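Need tokens for this chain, all 429 residues.
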Amino acid sequence: MHQPTWILHIDMDAFYASVEQMDQPELRGRPVAVGGMGGRGVISAASYEIRKYGVRSAMPGATARRLCPQGVFLPVRMRRYKEVSARVMAALHEFSPLVEQASVDEAYMDGTGLERLFGPIQQFCEAIRRRVREVTGGLTCSVGAAPVRFLAKIASDQNKPDGVFILHPEEVPLFLSTLPVAKIPGVGRRGQETLKALGVRHAGDVPRRPREFWEARLGKWGGELFDRCQGRGSTEVVPYAAPKSCSAENTFDQDTLDHSRLRRWLLAQSDRVAAELRKNQVRGRTITLKAKFADFRQVTRSRSLDHRTSETNVIYRTAVALLEELAPRTPLRLIGVGVSNFAPRARQLSLLEAASERPDEREQDLERTVDAIRSKFGAKALRRAELLDASGDRASKKQADQRTDGKSPARSRPATPTSETDNDQDPPF
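Here are the structure tokens for all 429 residues:
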């Protein structure tokens, strides 16, 4: 008898908001949103109570407050969410070693063959939900199970919150026949418009035309769309993917062209990114500057160094040089810096290596000391004097959106993501 393939997607329900309601019992049953604190901040998570007013993740905080003036709006406490997330992931590993953390609040699991240990698939999924509730002190999750991973992710959203949805292999064609094509990973707003013009509303509409038709109109993605709309997709679950980039960015409350202020932000971001690189024991060769203008136009500039680095000053000086090269003449609404092209921190020294290419040992010793102090006493225990000015603009005091990305198609899935709104991959069209 053929053993069915089961890929599970476990998704915590309104994770950030649920953690806040758990930690502050007086907030239970009340409309709660996490994030959106600044003038341009966006909502990171919305409780189910506040969703009734139309508040959703990724919505501007100002819009959310208009929709629900009586809502409770709280700052992001990423350290706390990661702490709870670690408990969830540990619990999932009790069931299988093949667990892939996709973000701070979701994971994939290869459940093939585990029915022999935990019973039928429905019973197995229920056991996962119970265990997650136990280890977190009452938080709920939704579980989807399907033959491939993208369908498992869709399935986990079917019976939210605190539900299970099983998509058996023989049910896939009927399920896709009525599934809105917008739910297929990779179909963005532009793609929806293109497909709508071709008479496509549901995933089941796509296979009515041959693969060649879609490839002619959408290129390589057309073939992938054709396959997905027939339920074909990856079953691979990767327990660990090495980080391949790390970045930090900030959106300003007001657009700015003040280069001294921009440099302070780049220093704060370089400091955060460098610390993360050292924590992961990697160095990067390529430094990237990201800038978004007031009109939402976005540009990036990159420079590859002669050597890999995890030093704040090297990253900062390169980012500033890229900013000077960009020479923006219109105000910016966002700036960020990233490092990629990694290699392990251990390195073999060469007698032929130029002195200018070697890491500054004194700088390294200083940064290791700073890391140790911050690890023991908190990130705010030491701050750079350069980040303080007469106006009190403390770049290091603001929260940067920091990402450490791992391997994956399209956009890299974060190894330690910080946003509840991260998707499995970006829309290619």
